[in-house]
Every structure is written in C-alpha cells, then in structure tokens.
Amino acid sequence: MDQILNLLASTSGISITTLLLSTLAYSSPLILCALGGLFSERSGVINIGLEGKMLAAACATAFVGAASQNPVVGLSAGIGIAILLSLLHWILTQVYQIDHIISGMGINALALGGTSLVSKTFVELGGKDAAIFPRELYYLAAWVAAAAIWYLFRSTRPGLRIFAVGNDPDKSRQMGLKPLGIRLQSLVMTGVLTGLAGALIATNAGRFSDEMTSGRGYIALAALILGGWKPWPTLLAALAFGFFGSLQLILQGRDLGGLAVPGEFWQALPYLITLIALAGMLGRNRAPAGLGQP
Amino acid sequence: MRFLGWRQILLALAGFGLIVAALLIAGAVPAEAIQTVVERALTRPAGWRNIIKEATPLLLLGCSVFIALKVGLFNIGADGQFVIGAVCSAVVALNVPAPINIPLAILAGIVGGCLWAYPVGLIKAYRGGHEVITTIMLNNIAGFLTFYLVSGVLKDPKSQQPSTAYISDLSKLPNILENGPLRINFAIIIAILVVIATWFFLKKTTVGYEIAATGENPNVAKFSGINVNRIMIRTMTASGGVAGLAGALQVLAYEHRFYGNFSPGYGFDALGVALLAGGNPLGILASGTLFATIAESTNVLSRTGVPKGLSFILLGVLVIVFAAFRYRKEANRGSDS
Lengths: 294, 337
Known about the structure:
Chain A contains 13 helices and no strands.
C-alpha cells in the first residue's frame, strides 16, 4: 500500500490529502446508507431497497433544493421521501406481510421510475444549481451516526429492543415487546440515514442525473454484510470501499506502468470481496437471526 | 375469500392512483395514452412482432426465476447469468465454423449461466450466505467483467462503442418465415418449449417433486430422505442455465452481437414475471406476454414524449399489489400479530 501511495505521489503528483478527501467524499454516502440498512436489518427487516431510497432522496434534494433555493427545504425533502419509502417498506412487509425481497425490489423499481419521470418532466429545474449544505457536514454526520448507533446498541434500552426484535421476534413478543412498533421506529431511522446519503450524493454531484446512485446502495449493503451488521466494522468496510473507489477515480487515465489494473476491476472489487467473504468463514451465523421473519 | 381483504383492495386502489398520478405528472392524458397504445402497439403486426421479441427473454428469465423460487431461492441474479450467457454465446458464434456453430453457441450460453449460478447454490447450501446477497454481488461483477471484456479483448476494432463484432449470417438464428405475418424468430418457439418443459419437469417428475418439497419446508424434506443441499445447488444451477439460454438467444436471434451494459435491467422484470405466474409454470406464458406488452406500450408512449420511467412505476405497482394478494409470509397466518 505504501508503495502505491509513494508511486502516486511521485509519478502523478497526487497528494495524500487529495486521496483522503476523495475517500471521504466517496465513502460517506456508503457509510450513511449502510448504517441506515443496519437499523432496518437489526430490527429484522431485510432491506435491499437502500438503492431506491437513496436515489429518491438524491432526486428530491436536487429538485426541491433548486426550486426553493433553500438548503433546509431541499434536505428535508430528500430525507422526507426516503422516510416515506421506508414507511412503504414497513407497511408492505409488516402489515401486508409481503416478502421483504419483493417489497425491496418493488420500491427500487418505483424509485427508479419515479426519479426518471421527474427528471425528464422538470428538465429546466434540473439544470439549475440546488441550494445545498456544505458536504463536510455530511461527512461529520456519517461518523457521528456510527458512534451514536454503537452507543445505542451497546448500552441503551431502545437499542436492546431493536436487537431483540431482530433476533427473535416471537420471544420478544412474549416478553411484551411490539415488533411492529419497534420496526416502525427503526425504519424511520433507515429513512433518515439513507435520505442523508442520497442528499450527499446529490450534493457531491451538484445536480441530479438518472440512476446517479449507480449501485452504491448495493455496495452499502455489501459493507453492512462485511461489517457483520455492527456499526464500526460496517463503517470500516464502507471506508475501505470508498478508498478503492476514489483510488480508481484518481488512477483513471493515468499511466502507471506495471500497476495498470483495469478500472472495472476496482469497481467490481467491493462485490468480489463480499462474495469471497460470504464463501469463506464469514457466511454463517452473523446475520440477525430473525431476519425476514414476521 | 382469504386473500381479498379491504387492505388488499385499498393497496390496489393506491397503486392505481399512483399510476394515474405518474401519467399526469408526465403530462399525458390517460385516455389519450391508452388510445396511442392500442393504435400503435396492440393492433399492428409490427407491434405484435416487437411484443414477441420482448417476450423471448422475459419468458426464459421468468422461467429461470420460477425454478429457483420453487426450491425457495430468490434468483435476483438472472440478470448476471443472462449477460454471462450472452457473452459466452457471442464468443462461440464469432469463432466456430458453420454447421455446429448455433448449437455450440446455445450450449455455451447455458454453460455460462450455470457456472455463474453454481457458486450461489454452494454458498447458500454450505455457508448459509443469503442467495439474494450473493446474486446481487454476482450481477455487478458480471456487469463489470463483461464490460471489461468487450472494451478490451473482445472489442471489435472497427467499433466506437464497447462491443463485439456482429456475428455472421450463418450464426444467426433464423426467422420462421422471412415474409408475411410469421416474420418472427425461432427463439420464441424455443422459449415457449422451455416453459412447457419446465412445467413437465416440475409437475411430473420425481426431481420436480423433491424441488417442491425442499421449497415448501427444507427440514421436512431432509427428514424424508431428500438431499436438500444437493437439490438446492442443482436447482440454482439449472435456473442459471435457463437464464444463460436467454442470453444466448438474445445474441443469436435479436442483437447479433454483445455489447457493454447488455441487459436493460431484466432482473426485476424476471422476478415480476415469475411472481405473477402464480403457482403454475404455464402461467409464465401469460405473465411474460403481459410484461412484454407493457414494455412495448411504454416504448410506443416514449415516442410521444411520455418518459420511459413510467414502465418501472407500472411494473413496480403491479408486482407489489400482486404480491400483497398472493405472496404473504406463510408463518404469520393464524398467529396473533
């Protein structure tokens, strides 16, 4: 790793600071999104709809932010739509008892179609710059969220309840907990965090474009799994993915001699690592035991 | 009626409202949109041919997801198996001489799809890794891998885009008739035959019964002497094979080459086709045709300025509402919550 960094610094004039900043920019949405997924899955709700929530939030933040020219309104719209989709997931999986995978896929489709519809319909608004918060605030939020979640699950009653409901909904029901209500709260938190993640993606890019999350919801899911559904390891995994992602962006189109690895390899790396981890020792017994149970 | 509660009806109404709202946002008058669809897609031979073309991969991919669903696995990875099958098939079609090229290219597609699904079954059976996660990972890896291949070693030097060369006329799967109303490709016949074969296999053979038993309850199946792990792995592999076949036919019959980002996102459509088929594989014929009709209808509408995002909303609502009627979690029926 040192060699690569030295080589970078010497051959192409990329400083470590640039790489660090770019890693932060790339990994923070992943961290926020993965932590959002953590809430949902810890409470027992499988969530492959992270991508859709993030995409919808990015779209709402960009368009409402451009229309209102007020960053507070823009961000609230982004978080609001993500919470709304989260609540839809809750209604579908908990009230209607639809399989979690089907609901997640359906929500992804709705978000994909809805955002593309909006961006094609309000073309003029899409060209305007949105009012946004400085991105550093989001970076900070990501790390604060990880610390807060770690504390929540380690030593507070609500955290323990989410944990219990996710591990064994039947037993926790007998102990007097109401899984439906606890999952509702958890999914609202998922909405808030994925909303922040989407808003950050829109902020980084300046405006919305179709499918701009480009699979990052799935990379966040990979980070969550690789991190064993625990906040700090999840953050580390997302950070590592962000590092490789930004390294790839920086190395793109540069002549590195023997170190030239195709960009597609870097892009596929998070998925590859997760797959190998699942095939190896990490597959068993780490997921919340009650995942997907009613 | 067990499934027809007021909640389900409410959801269906909400879904319908969402679709109408989407149409209105897109600036289309619903009545006019319907008229456009009827005139340009549903009542013209050219429209029918497009629907048949769209239906070919949907039938096969729906079949692929259906087979996996029977053994209790969500094959979200049909998309990845499809592109791997397609690239394998294109390589063979470009390099193998005439008499054996088409059968070999089809075989290559099937084998490619099988190989791409095999690890999913293995990880599920022996490591307990959720098949949805592994297939999502494999989908993305397949996308990047094939993109890398067609922008590198497999790229046609004459092409500006990441794409292979076009396959020769001798490698193309022929149309049934070159003129008249039957100017449709043999691929659709193959797809329909595969659906019927799947029905026979699942409903009439011992292995089909073992698959269903494993899907219903793996523990009971285990105690009745079924090798559950083996059944899961083989079914998942077969499911991948069918998806790979879809990729092969897409290359040989319609696209005649392989290019970057080959799949327009068939994964969700495939899941929808399989779910809407209900319990019987022959239902895929109906649901596949429905999805193909929706695809062609939104294609036609997009030419009149209605964004194509509408099709995702339509399909999303369709799948969610249908699932609310049919695919509720079994465990909760009769319990107190």
